[in-house]
């Protein structure tokens, strides 16, 4: 029996890993669960053993109806922080061992205490057991798109699934719905309950949000389909292009024609819906290139701005490298620029890159684009020596001295050596001259050597005539070999110099680029590196504050070395970075090769400046963002947590004023007590909110003075009566006074003790113990409650966090945040640690009053025992 996909159903126990099918949706409500359950029914009707491992209907009637007729695995019930949660029972699914399991919400995070942290990890175990799984996921839960979705919707997604899990699925099917249809489903009550519809339609489910999410889902799925297509072509060794969609590759050399080619290629790609643009630059394997890094970087930015991608490949045969890349990317069109070589260079050096690429292109269309720079190259390449002037002078001296000295030595050995040996020794001398001085001194040595050989060693001796043709041929071969060897030596020296320079430049630029992009190197450090690398006196980054670059409109952004440059005209070297930025160097003029590398450094300086300014803006915006979050949280607290005491007090007062009811004395007192307690709670909450606002604004007034900790603790516990009955206090008599604001510290102790009382088990009251530690005094509030996991201890001090609370009746979650803020405002610290044996210990550390002549007051005595 075969399933819908044509696979043979042999049963879970007869095959290895199961197959995974995923229904991908752009947003909640598009019908993923409905499609999953529908597929489950179809498989069951064909005789497959299908179970519902986990499916969430959210009360939607159509989805709930599809659950009927399918076997449902009972869910596991887990206790966590006093609440009961339901999760998929993984062990029950594995024990049941069906052929197909339906598992909803692949990105779901399991309740702590489950075997795995994420549901997709549960699914992996099910697949490893040989069970097929059909699951669902929304595009916003894909890890790679998480930040993009948050920018679009403004809603962070905390539950994510790695893209690799979804990409590895055997099938991914898109469940698609237009934004208008989805909003109609929402308005008809088919997705959320009526009370949530208006908020959803005006926030997350706006038409623009849904359209963007839909596009993300379509593009992600298109990429997965393309991966499958490429894999199929590779497995079947298909080399030709399949024009499933247009893919345009543009070849970049870094030359001035690059922008023209990019824009032309972008227009070609835009003519086809879904067309891709890929830019590629071929680098020689030896690393030697004449490309301007700044120009190539600018062209890369242009490619990315028009929606393309930039690639760099290595290859000595440029046409072959281009075509190999194009075929690997399944490209349909290749865009090249017309040659910049002149007609003379083309005639001498043969067919150019464009002609050779066209000959080998096969079924890839090649566009040769004309541009303003074509045909403007030099006629023939001119050799550029790599030998320093000092070495050249040494070569001339050696050529002038070595040949006569060798002639004198060989004359004395005329009877022992023949002409062949003489020629080889003179050839060795020419090679030595080439190694020292380069090509031109070697040519001079070859000419002088040929004349000396002819005059002193070739019969007739002491005449410039040659009697035998064989000797004439030997002399001619000597001259030719000497010239060829000299040329080879010169080229090798030039290549070695170029390779060493290219390697040094590459290492320098790579290290600098990496540190700049990672944000590890500031602008000043970068300018220092430029000054040291090029041996300049000063390096200055100038910014123009006027579009017209008028006089006096330049300002120094950063400068290293002396004297600094205040205007570009004062610099020995000027490198424009952008329309308004210029890198100015003073010290000496630089050759063209150094300017090319300097242009790359100038680009890095612009990036470092942008990073510096963005960091400054982010730092300036951080207090504003914090204040905005605080205002938002305050509004939420006022609208929710303050409503309960207000409502209680209002109800009690309204009841007392009602003329229709005659209250007896007991009920009257109870209503008054209710109103009084509610107003006390309200006043306490408002005080906390106001103090937190003052802390955030830096406007909280403090009056620190020497004070006894025992007295402050006593007043704090009196405030908490009668709840503080039984609290154990241990304050040594010898404890020094503390330097703090007594009223503020009292509030901190009240908050911490109240928190400890709330979580302490019956019969185990909190302990307040104090001790001196150097110039500090520590007060520890110790409880034996459930404690707080270490990973949550920083979050417990964040305003409006109530870790472990299951309702909103215990306050707005400001107690610990306010306590830490007040303690730090007094120069102290507040930390949380585990209590040995279980529980939480909050430690308040404040400065002690110490110094010569200090003595504890008589009232500072040990206080221990039950209150």
Overview in brief:
It is built from 25 helices and 24 strands.
Instruction: State the secondary-structure class.
Output: alpha/beta
The percentage helix is 40-55%
What is the strand content? 5-15%
So how many helices?
Answer: 25
Distance between the termini: 79 Å
Shape call: elongated
Low-confidence stretches: 1-14, 376-385, 548-552, 802-813, 851-867
The whole-angstrom Rg is: 42 Å
Main sheet overview: 6 strands, parallel
* E-strand count: 24
- Overall mean pLDDT stands at 76
Spatial order of strands in the largest sheet? 3-2-6-7-1-8
Q: Any overview of this molecule?
A:
With 867 residues, the chain is an alpha/beta fold. The relative contact order is 0.04. Residues 1-14, 376-385, 548-552, 802-813 and 851-867 have low confidence and may be disordered.
Topology overview:
Blueprint: E1 20-25, H1 32-45, E2 50-54, H2 61-67, E3 71-72, E4 76-80, E5 83-87, H3 90-96, E6 100-103, H4 119-128, E7 132-138, H5 146-153, H6 163-167, E8 171-175, H7 179-187, H8 194-202, H9 207-235, E9 247-251, H10 258-270, E10 276-283, H11 293-305, E11 309-314, H12 318-328, E12 333-337, H13 343-349, H14 353-360, E13 365-369, H15 389-412, H16 419-437, H17 439-456, H18 469-517, H19 523-534, E14 538-544, E15 554-561, E16 573-576, E17 581-586, H20 592-640, H21 643-657, H22 665-697, E18 705-707, H23 709-720, E19 728-730, E20 738-740, H24 742-759, E21 767-773, E22 776-782, H25 815-825, E23 829-834, E24 840-847
Parallel strand pairs: 1-7, 1-8, 2-3, 2-6, 6-7, 9-10, 9-12, 10-11, 12-13, 19-21
Antiparallel strand pairs: 4-5, 14-15, 14-17, 16-17, 18-20, 21-22, 22-24, 23-24
